[in-house]
Amino acid sequence: MNYNEPSEKIKNEWENDPDNWVWGMFYYNPKDKRSYFPKRNREFGWHANYANPIFIVVIAFFALIVLAVIKNNR
Question: Is 53 in contact with 34 (CB distance < 8 Å)?
């Protein structure tokens, strides 16, 4: 067990805190180190933590790929 990692109870409190949700849709919590976490009903997919730097790098990478494909198709 990693003692620096918050408990499941703390993670659930963060997820339920409306202050960690921008416009009720985007999870933004710098204290939460997870990039992604499952939605309550796992069949519906995953949430992303927009405050996590890894997530920002992944989004930027995919945006660059999309822009490169668009540019090459013109």
Answer: no
Query: Domain range for residue 41?
Result: 8-72
- Tell me the pTM: 0.71
| 19 in a structural domain | yes
Q: How many domains does the chain have?
A: 1
**Torsion region of 65: left, alpha or beta (phi above 0 gives left; psi -120 to 50 gives alpha):** alpha
Question: What whole-number distance in Å separates Cα of residue 26 and Cα of residue 32?
Answer: 14
Q: Tens-digit pLDDT profile for the chain (74 aa)?
A: 556 788 889 988 998 899 999 998 889 999 988 888 887 777 888 888 999 999 889 999 999 999 999 998 87
